[in-house]
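$ fold --in a.seq
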Amino acid sequence: MTLGSSRLLRFLRNSEAYEKSASFANAESRRLRVRIRKMASLVALVVVYGLGMTVYADSTTHDSRVRVPVLVCSSFTLFVFLFYDSLAYIILSSCSAVLTQYLRVELVALGSCRTPRHVEQVRLRLHAIKKLKCSLNKIWHPALAVWSACLILVLCITLYAIFDGHIGQPEVWLALAYAAYASMSFADVAISSQCLSDLVQYLHRTVDPEALCFTGGGFFRLNKALLVSMAGSIITYAVILVQTSDELADHVDVSRLV
């Protein structure tokens, strides 16, 4: 945990250094779809907390001297569990949103480049964004692996309980609400990750290196690979000639050609 905290602090410092070097200004507000996903996850989390407290209240003893302390401890324990369980979602979704804004700013900067020096500066900043993403992924890749496995397990158990006829029990509703929250939060992180990939793909399509090569009527590109292909064709033809030269000498009368 301490190692992960130090890495996260290093990531935040590197992000701050990038923003200073790039003169980054956060002038873009979150889109409506992103806000809807965040609100849906928050509502699901509140529902999970409410159902959890209901289950705890029904399962505790009716002795008033013990009931109140148990409910207080249960509410605090459930809050700590949900907060700890949501750390990966909160940090990853926030950091991926920031990285997405970094990429959008660099795409705009690339479109306004006028000199090769400006293009090189954009390339270096894109490389810095890639390093930020890799450092963030190194922190959370074990949590992502466990998160995905636990999500599949919770969904399977919940579906089994529903089809087994236990849909009326409060515990099943609690598991269903938690599965919905975990699914929405995991989907939100996955969509944010895909957004990063889509922006890079857009950049690759905008600046396609292969499109800068000369072409022969669209049939081939004039590059080193074409030279290798041509050399391979010539070598293949030469090998065929060597293999068939003896047979040609046997069947052709050279005296008639003189």
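$ fold --in b.seq
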Amino acid sequence: MQAAQGKVTLVGAGPGDPELLTIKALKAIEAADVLLIDDLVNPEILALAPSTARVIQVGKRGGCESTPQEFIERLMIAEARAGQHVVRLKGGDPYLFGRGGEERAQLRAHGIAVEVVPGISSGLAAPATLGVPLTHRAWSQGAVFVTGHGKDAASEPNWAALAQSGLTLVVYMGVARCEAIQAGLLAGGAKPDTPVAVVQSATRAHQRQLLTTLGQLPAALRDSGLGSPSIIVIGDVVRCADDWQDLAELAPPPALEQPAVGHAASPGIRFFVTSRDAALTPASQGSDPVRGLTPTVAFRVAG
């Protein structure tokens, strides 16, 4: 006797912190027969799945070698037709740069029942960890979520137009293309002193963040060592960040013979790099904990 057809649930696993899973996402994970997991899903979340569930890694990360999308879709269809409850677990939200729309369309085209469980996107969570709202009556009446890594040249965002919108920009997968993003925004009229925040591994225990300006973004990113996965937030709302006032008041840094990190700092670069949930100490031993900071790393994790 042929088994009853199963179903697929596209689940947003949130930005990383397991406590930010929705109740509906948790219930879907607990009821899964098969889980197809993206690279950005926190391994701690897998502990919530039944011990009998099969876990299949189908790594998807911008700019890296990934499991072919067609293979993932065929696998979901085959498992559902075999009577399994398939949970496609994605970092963030399935419908925000997660290809959830493509997967749902393919599943429906093959007669597979599919449900979508939204998740908290890192584009919302990352700025929140710094105290940054995406909208603010004084500075921004809206926000734009945009990828820095288009499918091809034709799908490249119109950075000049975005610069003229006056809206907060939340850029996914933008670290590797920060120079092109900066050039496009400046060409569109954005001011070099526009505040910028970069958050790597948002809400995870190893989260790191950077506060700088648009004019200094590429050099600050290079000197900070931050990489992917990161969210870049561009706009005046970044002034709400907990450490922004300290950065704004930071005096021009003195010349250093030996930078605080293992490479030469770019002259004149001023920014903060901090870590989440870590003991923070001034990077210099001066009596003033703000004006004595080095130009490369304003705080470092106490060892």
